[in-house]
Amino acid sequence: MYSRHLIIEQGGTRALVTGMGATLALKVAGLKSWSTIGGISGGSIPAILMASKLNPLSSLERILACDFSQLFQPSAKVGTDPAAAHAARREGERVPAHKWVARMLRKGMMHTDKLGELIEKEVKVWPESFWTMASSETSHVVFTASGVFEYGFDGSFTVLSEEPASISLAIRATCAVPGLLEAVEYRGRYLFDGALSPYGDNPVAFARKHLLGEEGLVVSCFSTGKDSRKNDMLMNLGRWLLCHSAGKVTTGDRKADININSHVPQLTALRFKMTEAQKQLGMLAGFNAAIMALAKHSHMFQEGVSDLPCATDFAMVLQLARQYLS
C-alpha cells in the first residue's frame, strides 16, 4: 500500500520559519495528504500546523505576527539551587541524574508555557497523523495520537500512555533546549529537546526503524545556516552531559527519499527576536527549496504535482499560494 511521510527536522526558529515555507509549497503543489507528519524540536511547530489541516495562509500570517521572544519567559526558579530543587523524589520518579550539571540543565533560563498555550490555541485536537519526539536521560519518548511510547537506549520498549499527551506538553518537551529552556516533566521523566536523541541529526532513521517500517516514501525538511556546525557541537555536548547511555543506540544510515534543504545563512537557530522580514526570508527559502526538490522528484508521487516556479520574493509566495489554494 502506498504511503507518504513527511518529517521536519530540528533547527530552532529557523526550522520553524523554513518549515512553514516548505509545507506551504507542498500544499500549493497538491500534496495535502500524508500518512504521517513528524517534527522534531523547532520543526514540530510547522509539522503540527500542517497535520492539523489548518488554512496554511492563516497559519503563515499568525507566525509572521507572532513575537517569538514573548513565547519564552524567564524561569521563576532562576536563582534557586537546582540540585535542591530536584533532590526530593516524587512518587514514581526515576533516580535523578548523578551529576549536578545534569540537574542544573533541567532548569533552563526560560520556561515555555506561552509556547504551549499558543499551539493549543491553534490546534484543539491531536492530529491523527502527527508525531514528535523528546529525549530523556535514558530513552526517546514519542508522542502520537494513539499514545506515548518510550524507546530505551538499552533496546527496551514501554507504553507510557494509551492516550495522547497534551499538545502543549509534547511541543514544549521536544523544544526544551538544555540549560536554555526548562525540561518538561512527564511521568517521572525529565524530557529535553528531541534533537538530543542519537537520531537527532537523522530522525528519518528513527521513523523508519520504529514508526514507518521499510515501506513508504519519506520526505525530509531540514534547514542549515552559518551556525549549523556550532549547533551540532552544542547538541553533541548536551547529549554527552545528559543522555549518558545514548551511545548504545545504533542508528544506521537511513536517508529520506527526498530531501528539502533550506539554507539560510542570515538566520541562526536560536534567534528568538526575529523581525517580520527575517521570517519572510526563511519562509521564502523553505518554499523555494521545496519547489526545487519537487521538480527534481515529481515522478515519485503517484498523483503527480503541480509544476510551480520558484518565487523571487515573499509577495510571489503569497500570490502563488492564493492562486493554487483558492
Short description:
The protein is an alpha/beta fold.
Number of helices: 11
Strand ordering within the main sheet: 8-7-6-5-2-1-11-12
Count of strand segments: 12
- Unreliable stretches (pLDDT < 50, length at least 5) are 78-98
| CA gyration radius, whole angstroms | 19 Å
Overall mean pLDDT stands at 87
Q: Termini, distance in Å? A: 30 Å
The SSE string, one letter per element, is EHEHHEHHEHEEEEHEEHEHEHH
Strand content: 15-25%
Structural class: alpha/beta
Describe the structure.
The chain has 326 residues and is α/β, with parallel strands linked by helices. 38% of the residues lie in helices and 17% in strands. It contains 11 helices and 12 strands. It has helices at residues 12-28, 44-51, 56-65, 82-85, 100-107, 113-122, 167-174, 203-212, 228-242, 276-297, 314-325; strands at residues 4-8, 36-39, 73-74, 110-111, 130-135, 139-144, 147-152, 157-161, 184-186, 189-191, 217-224, 258-263. An 8-stranded mixed β-sheet has the order 8-7-6-5-2-1-11-12, sandwiched between helices. Strands 3-4 form a two-stranded antiparallel sheet. The longest helix is centred in the last third of the chain and has 22 residues, at 276-297. The protein starts with a strand and ends with a helix.
